[in-house]
Specification:
With 240 residues, the protein is an alpha/beta fold. It has eleven helices and eight strands. The chain has an eight-stranded mixed beta sheet, sandwiched between helices. α3 crosses α5.
Length: 240
């Protein structure tokens, strides 16, 4: 496994953009750490990640960021949510897209509830519905786009050309776009999205995710999506 920053950077050949300490708090997706525990080491790690993303050389690399992982339960949704909240907290108009159409996990931040408004899957069928589908969250400057439940045929929808149009509208309407996706080794959906997003961050559960899975994930990204990961986020790292 990759238990430290030095191990991760030597093995992957990419920078560790953030090392997020293990938290004693439960239900981490219930509210962003940067809001609930702003003085915590975890919140500081996400502010550092925000800085790392903001300093990427090209503007398109800075403005649209995708989070994925090798397997489930590594914390990619947690990281995507907190980075989006960190940007919003800075006054940046931010859109968080929950693009895991099989197991959406960020439904709770949609303030309006499932009121019949169009969803991400509807936008992928008809991109003109984008502005209707975007919903405000309870946090200023943070907006959301996603599905409330499993969408059959999600991979087919993401493989259509409409995905590019949706992402273009997102970047035209918002200063920052953060995308949460499915685990890359579990389903193929993420590869469709990664082709259209310049910056891919790989979340790795420190001390738990086997190196062989990290290597296979990076190879899939490179071979199929023609993307190199911009960096690694070591989640749940043991500071000892």
């Amino acid at each position: 496994t990759l238990a430290s920053i030095d191990e991760a950077e030597d093995f992957v050949g990419r920078p560790v953009l953030a090392a997020v300490p293990r938290s004693r708090h439960r239900r981490l997706n219930s509210r962003p750490m940067v809001l609930n525990y702003p003085e915590s080491l975890q919140a500081e790690a996400f502010r550092s990640l925000r800085t790392s993303i903001s300093l990427l050389p090209a503007e398109d690399e800075r403005r649209c960021v995708l989070f994925t992982s090798a397997v489930p339960s590594e914390g990619k949704s947690f990281c995507a949510l907190n980075l989006a909240a960190a940007f919003a907290q800075q006054g940046v108009r931010t859109l968080l897209i929950d693009a895991d159409l099989r197991r959406p996990s960020l439904q709770w931040i949609f303030s309006a509830g499932p009121s019949g408004k169009p969803k991400l899957s509807d936008c992928l069928k008809d991109p003109t519905r984008f502005s209707e589908a975007v919903q405000p969250s309870s946090m200023p400057n943070l907006f959301c786009l996603g599905d409330w439940k499993y969408t059959p045929g999600g991979a087919e929808l993401l493989g259509r050309g409409a995905l590019k149009q949706v992402l273009e509208q997102a970047q035209a309407s918002f200063e920052q776009v953060v995308i949460d996706t499915a685990p890359l080794l579990a389903v193929s959906d993420t590869l469709h999205i990664a082709r259209e997003v310049p910056t891919v961050c790989l979340v790795v559960n420190a001390g738990k995710t086997p190196r062989r899975l990290v290597r296979r994930t990076l190879k899939l990204l490179n071979d199929r999506a023609k993307r190199d990961a911009a960096g690694i986020i070591l989640n749940k790292i043991n500071l000892q």
